[in-house]
Amino acid sequence: MRSATRLDILGTEDAYVVLDAAKQLEAAGHRVLHLEIGEPDMPTPPHVVEAGVRALREGRTRYAVAAGLPELRDAIAQSLAARGVRASAENVIVTPGAKPMLFCAALAVIEPGDEVLCPNPGFPIYESVARFAGGQPVYYPLAESRAFAPDVDAIAARVTPRTRVLIVNLPHNPTGGVASADDLARLAALAERHDLWLITDEVYGQLRYDGRCDSIAALPGMSERTIIVDGFSKAYCMTGWRLGYGVMPAWLSEPMTTLVINNLSCTATFVQHAGVAALTGPQDPVHRFVASLRAKRDMLVRGLNAIDGVRCATPAGAFYTFPDVSGVLARTGLACGALAERLLAEAHTAVLAGTAFGPGGAGHLRLSYAGAARDLEQALERIRGWVGSLAAVA
Ligand code: PLP
């Protein structure tokens, strides 16, 4: 027996592979510091938990309508006003997490042979689902010299008559980069000029340190060609609840619902009630979370920059640093994948190699600062000590 060949073209996320290796070390009795997985250490806000539990107690344990509960679709549409997006419930489709919506969006708009512009470095699932849908991923670079903001000229240079979709992720995983208002306007003009679909992954949209909250979908003409992908995992500390959504032109909602019926049926009903509470209840847990992230970001960036051979920019959003470790690599003769592997095996500190996000991540590591502050402090100590102990190549 063998599986269908289409499974062979799927990529994966190294975060899960490294997490698995880290768990094995833990099972062998080691204390591992987890900077590999993008998961907040904060609990889900209590009023959200309460709403989920109440929904369970009230028997909201049956199938929901496939597109999502009307009250949640409505609350999501209202919440988008904060980033300048005008939408109504009919534009919103709810899924169990943002990732299923990425998958659905790719299947919904990519034709076989279409070229799909993906950030490099970037979330590896973009190119995986683009390929799965029959498309051809085409990388566009994100340069550290531009604080990892999308370079519109570099993207424009990669557009061909076959280009159909542009994927943007702002704030960006793995770099924390954001785009200026001018970059967004130029990207929107590019999408319009070449009649492209825009898939805009905004799962870190509320985790910003520059006081801004925006979306390319808010720009004139963009709502017709944009699918916003977002979810509750990051901003509301709800990774395990599995709740996300897409926002799209109303005409696409119906075929997208058919796609949902075919593979998901619907999203857990009581989880959707918790989602309503997250959006309509007090937002101070999100503000507190962002404040705590800012403090951890500053501590991590300072600590990394104090290590010989490491240079780390200050990210404007999300909860990742993406330090350039090429000084360490040059001194030791290691590649960044080997550096990350040895850091886990020898210093029990789990991080990701920049190349887990495509070839554009070479020379970097990705460290998540969503975990506990004391773990980050210890991780810095371990990294500093371990990097210092590495022998230099002759
Ligand atoms: N998009 C990006 C850029 C992510 O980093 C992640 C999770 O790490 C997701 C989407 C998926 O989020 P969810 O937990 O809502 O499926």
Q: Structural class, please?
A: alpha/beta
Total of domains: 2
Which sheet architecture does the biggest sheet show? 7 strands, mixed
Helix share, percent: 40-55%
- Going by CATH, the architecture of the largest domain would be 3-Layer(aba) Sandwich
Give the SSE string. Answer: HEHHEHEHEHEHEEEHHHEHHEEEH
How do the strands of the widest beta sheet line up side by side? 2-8-7-6-5-3-4
Bound molecules: pyridoxal-5'-phosphate
- Residue windows where pLDDT falls under 50 for at least 5 positions: none
Mean pLDDT: 96
CATH superfamily caption of the largest domain: Type I PLP-dependent aspartate aminotransferase-like (Major domain)
Query: Any idea what the radius of gyration is?
Result: 21 Å
| CATH topology call of the largest domain | Aspartate Aminotransferase, domain 2
Give the CATH level 1 class of the largest domain. Answer: Alpha Beta
Q: Tell me the number of strands.
A: 12
Question: What portion of residues belong to β-strands?
Answer: 5-15%
Number of helices: 13
State the distance separating the first and last CA atoms: 51 Å
Q: Can you tell me the overall shape? A: globular
